[in-house]
Structures are given as structure tokens and as C-alpha cells.
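Below is our example:
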Amino acid sequence: MVAEFQKSTMYLEQSEGVESGDLQKNFDDDGREKRTGTLVTASAHIITAVIGSGVLSLAWAIAQLGWVAGPAVLLAFSFITYFTSTLLADCYRSPAPHSTNRNYTYMNVVSSHLGGVKVQLCGLAQYSNLIGITIGYTITASISMVAVKRSNCFHKHGHHASCSVSNYPFMIIFAAIQIVLSQIPNFHKLSWLSILAALMSFAYSTIGLGLSVATVAGVGHHVKTSLTGVTVGMDVSGTEKVWRCFQAIGDIAFAYAYSTVLIEIQARKDDTLRSHPPENKVMKKASLVGVSTTTLFYMLCGVMGYAAFGNKAPGNFLTGFGFYEPFWLIDFANVCIAIHLIGAYQVFSQPIYSFVEGGCQQRWPDNKFITYEHALSIPCCGVYNINLLRLVWRTTYVVVTALIAMIFPFFNDFLGLLGAASFYPLTVYFPIEMHIAQKKIPKYSFTWIWLKILSWTCLIVSLVAAAGSIQGLAQDIKTYKPFNTQ
């Protein structure tokens, strides 16, 4: 499983045969082309990886927790994320940070330091997370597409018009686009994709922040906020308050998930870290810059969003119509979300595609259905090679994720569940366990005890966040109507 993941990961590019003379000049100590990245490029990659659709739910999350607990939880997650990322950075090389043996993927790191069944558990956590993210992106993109149509309806007929629009047709449109894009060979190597996704992400996040600031500064702006968030007995019941707080923690956890790409940022040859100065030292500084910048941005979006909407903050502050005007700016922001997620879906699905296809090719190397490429001449586009396994498998995957999204089209609850499920194993558990193994920290020593306390505390937080999201999903299923009228 480890070898297959190493072959499938979207971030790796194997080097061709090299001459010994060129090895010192143009290649690193592992025979791969010299990495050219710096602190600036690594920080940019981290910021791009962290800031995404999770920012859309932060105003709602702060509204559930209030002025005190909301920012405190944001800061707590930022600190934990930064701390564990420094532990993970030291694991890039094994058995010690200064060793010559590099690890190119998260699973490779776990295999080098822990081994055994934990490697399979890591793979299960990673791939489950990737699948969940693609489902979540289908939900979020369709909601944004619906929001564009509803925004124009509200502008034309007034803010109190019904403007009911079903999410299902837009999920089908999104899935159709993904079916086409998934057939493009080496889609993940298109460098412009990351740039476009980053631009779109910053665009809609900045628009949301700007609209929040404008709303707060507006004349006659009065909303209800409190130190403890939504008020029991007025806004929600006591039980609902507890469940919502748990779910809000999951939403914040989702917003900070980037551990799965940290190793790849260190390992990748293009625009990432050079061998000197040591990658782990640069990555620690980059993590500090990236997480600090992201936390500042998140704090602004969450706090200003809560100040703008109060305890009535929508689950998604760009599609929940806390803002109605200027409608064209709302439309543009939601188009940015859709474009971002169309590309991001492909980025996160490529390792899943490659894992299955690589495994099939390894097991049945002589099967023509799996290995044969059928040449198809397309006018004005040249020759395109069709592989039947790629056509059937990738189409099936997109259809299945779209069907699951149709069954559970609930933005906040699904994001909270993803955050709860991925934060503990990938951001906390494995980095701490690998650090203990790498440093050979004695059992029951002071350092061992407080690391274990941190790990167990984060496990409890993840469990309650998952419980809140599951309860929210159950409630949403009971009350769900196929037309978006909120």
C-alpha cells in the first residue's frame, strides 16, 4: 500500500537517469532535480493549502461559540496545527532530521518511523479524507452555483421573494464537468491550476471580509451578539446549543487541515525547499508564517462576519444571503468559489485515481482493458488516448461522490464531520507518535506524558466535534427539502 501511494501521489515527479557528473550540479543528494524553493515559496504554498472553503463557515462557528470561546478556539487550533507541523517537518528525513534518507509522502514518513499497521491506518485516514473532501466540494460548488441564480432573483424580485432553486441540477452539472476533466491525463501537473485556485480562494475570501466590514460600518447596523454566542431559550434550545458548539469546533478544525501536504511541500522539486539550509528548519519558519497569516485572516473573517450578522450568521456567509447587494459582487464571489472547487476537486481526486489505477496495473499487467490506450483523433485538438479503465473508473467515482452529495447536501455539518475525522489522526496523532519514536522519548517521562495528554485531548475534541456534526446531519435529513429556500 505504501509503494502504491508513493507512485500515485500527485506531488511527486520521478527523475530520469542522471549522469554522475550532473548529480552534484543539477541534482540533490537523492538523485532528483534540485529543489529551488525558499521560505517565501513554502509559506505561499502553506497559505494556499490552508485558506479555502472552510473560511466560509467561520462566521457561523464564531456565532455558536461567542466572542470569548470563538477566537480562543481559533487560536488553539492554530497553535496545535503549528506545533504538530514542526514535529512533522522533522520527520521528512529519517531516522533523524539530518539523515540522508528522505520521505516523499505522508505514508512514507509513517512507514519509516512507525511501520506496521499504523501505515495502513494512515492510508485509510488519508484516502477517506480525500474522498470526503471531493464530496464536500461537490456540495459547496453546487450551493455557490445556486446562490448566483438566487442572487439575481432577489435583485429582480426583492429580498423577500421565494426564489426556490434545487441543488440537484447544479450537482449534476458539476459532476458532468468533473467527468470531462478527470479524463485529462496528468491533470495534476498543470501548474496554472494551483495558481488559479489560489487566486479564486483569496478573491472570494477577501470579498466576504470586505462585505462584512462594509456591513458593520453601515448606518443603522444593529445585530445581536454576545460573549457566549447564540442565546439559549431565544435563538436555540439548550441541547441544540451544545450540538452546535461541537459542530462549530469541527468547522474550525476543517479550516486548518493541511498536514497531508506538508511533507510534499518539503519533497517536491518545483518551487519548494532546497536542501540547504535544512528543509526542516525552513519548513518550521514557513509554518509559522503560513499559520500566523492564515489565523489573522480567519480571525478577521470570523470576527467581522459575526459582527456583521450576529447570532443569525448564516452557515455560509456568501451563499446564506447575509449579503444581498451589490448582487454582481455576490455573483462574482460565488463564481470564484465554483471555479476554485472545480479545480480543487481534481487536485484532491488525482491520488485516488492513481492509487486504484496503479494497483490494477500492478495486479493485472497484461489486461488490455487496464493497460491499452486507444488513440482518438479530435479535430483541432490532436490525438487523445482513451484508456477504458480510466474512463469507467473515474466516471464511476465522480458519479458516486455526486450521489452521496445529493443525499447529504449540508454544508456546515459535512465540513464539521470532515474536520473532526481528519484533524486528530493526520494533524495530531501521527506527528506526535513519530516525534516520540524519532527522539526515542522514554515512556512516562515528562515530555512523553504531556505529548500524550495533548494527543488524548485532541482526540476527545475530535470525537465531540464528530458527534455534533453527525447529530446535525441527522437533523438536516429529517427536515431537508430539495429546494433551497433559506
In short: Residues 41-361+387-479 form a domain with the Amino acid/polyamine transporter I fold (CATH 1.20.1740).
